[in-house]
């Protein structure tokens, strides 16, 4: 039986609002996928037995921008953003424009994404690909490797610290990079563990959807130096990236700012040129 999230022995927190809805729906989807596909079929996939691209190497490569460019069709806060976009075409343009990594939403119900979008992005890119989803079960980590992802996301407002440690250990054993997402200091302090590669400060409060880049500036000094530091959400100006870099961030996760345009790849190209020339 699936654990109920209000159960004290549950591996999940109960953050409330949309996150509880997302978790409840995701648990049903995972149960169905386990029955329909199963772990052994995932492990037989051609992409499962591969060496992942290193997030560290790509983020620190001087010829790249540090931007993790996101393919995001819709979101709970904005509704539909760009539901007709082509995952292969857009993400290839992101990479050509200097993205250090690609993020692909694979949640269908709340973000209009899919595993197919990630497989398409993988097939045309040779930089790290982040599976942007709500990871609640080991099955999804094995699935992430099998569909071509290099990075998984663990969200501290959803997962209890012992669950984060367990999932990070599994991801590492599969050669995946792990990004821990926090929004506030208490989440960072209770969730940090050795098997993580990167800490992302989400500037968006996932309960009320308010966004402030100040969260990144407030937390950057609290992140130990051995972890990559990534600022996530609400970034739309090149000046903000320069300020975040000065503050110590290595990576910048940007979705809506590109995806809201008719040609997201061209928007990333233009942004990247402005970043290089400092305009
Ligand atoms: O974006 C949302 O509305 C949202 C709602 C609930 C949970 C997660 C949500 N977004 C995931 C993200 O963190 C963003 O897609 C990502 O950081 C990019 O943000 P942005 O550049 O603001 O699109």
Automatic annotation (TrEMBL):
Q: What class of enzyme is it?
A: lyase
**Entry's Gene Ontology BP terms:** L-tryptophan biosynthetic process
Q: Does the keyword Nucleotide-binding apply?
A: no
Q: Which Pfam families match?
A: IGPS (PF00218)
EC number(s) stated in the UniProt entry for this protein = 4.1.1.48
Which pathway does it serve? Amino-acid biosynthesis; L-tryptophan biosynthesis; L-tryptophan from chorismate: step 4/5
| GO molecular function terms noted in the UniProt entry | indole-3-glycerol-phosphate synthase activity; phosphoribosylanthranilate isomerase activity
Any idea where the Indole-3-glycerol phosphate synthase domain is? 19-270
Q: Which UniProt keywords apply?
A: Amino-acid biosynthesis, Aromatic amino acid biosynthesis, Decarboxylase, Lyase, Tryptophan biosynthesis
Note the Gene3D superfamilies from the entry.
Answer: Aldolase class I
InterPro entries annotated for this entry? Aldolase_TIM, Indole-3-glycerol_P_synth, Indole-3-glycerol_P_synth_dom, Indole-3-GlycerolPSynthase_CS, RibuloseP-bd_barrel
Instruction: Kindly state which reaction or reactions the protein catalyses.
Output: 1-(2-carboxyphenylamino)-1-deoxy-D-ribulose 5-phosphate + H(+) = (1S,2R)-1-C-(indol-3-yl)glycerol 3-phosphate + CO2 + H2O
Q: Which family does it belong to?
A: Belongs to the TrpC family.
- The name on file for this protein is Indole-3-glycerol phosphate synthase
Which species does the entry assign this protein to? Pararcticibacter amylolyticus
Q: What is the lineage of its organism?
A: Bacteria, Pseudomonadati, Bacteroidota, Sphingobacteriia, Sphingobacteriales
GN (gene name): trpC
């Amino acid at each position: 039986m699936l654990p109920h999230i209000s159960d004290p022995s549950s591996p999940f927190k109960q953050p409330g609002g949309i996150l509880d809805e997302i978790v409840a729906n995701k648990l049903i989807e995972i149960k169905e996928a386990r029955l329909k596909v199963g772990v052994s079929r995932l492990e037989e996939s051609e992409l499962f037995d591969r060496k992942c691209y290193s997030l560290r190497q790509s983020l620190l490569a001087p010829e790249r921008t540090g931007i993790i460019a996101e393919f995001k069709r819709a979101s709970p806060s904005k509704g539909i953003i760009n539901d007709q976009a082509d995952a292969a075409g857009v993400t290839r343009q992101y990479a050509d424009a200097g993205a250090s990594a690609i993020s692909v939403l694979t949640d269908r119900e709340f973000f209009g994404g899919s595993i197919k979008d990630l497989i398409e992005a993988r097939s045309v890119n040779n930089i790290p690909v982040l599976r942007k989803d709500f990871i609640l079960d080991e099955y999804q980590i094995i699935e992430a490797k099998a569909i071509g992802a290099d990075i998984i996301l663990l969200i501290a407002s959803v997962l209890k610290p012992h669950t984060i440690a367990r999932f990070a250990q599994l991801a590492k054993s599969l050669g995946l990079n792990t990004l821990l997402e926090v929004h506030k200091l208490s989440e960072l302090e209770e969730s940090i563990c050795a098997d993580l590669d990167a800490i992302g400060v989400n500037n968006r409060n996932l309960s009320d959807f308010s966004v402030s880049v100040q969260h990144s500036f407030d937390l950057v000094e609290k992140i130990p130096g051995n972890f990559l530091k990534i600022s996530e959400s609400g970034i739309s100006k090149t000046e903000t990236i320069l300020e975040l870099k000065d503050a110590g961030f290595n990576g910048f996760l940007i979705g809506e700012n590109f995806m809201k345009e008719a040609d997201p790849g061209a928007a990333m190209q233009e942004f990247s040129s402005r970043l290089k020339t400092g305009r």
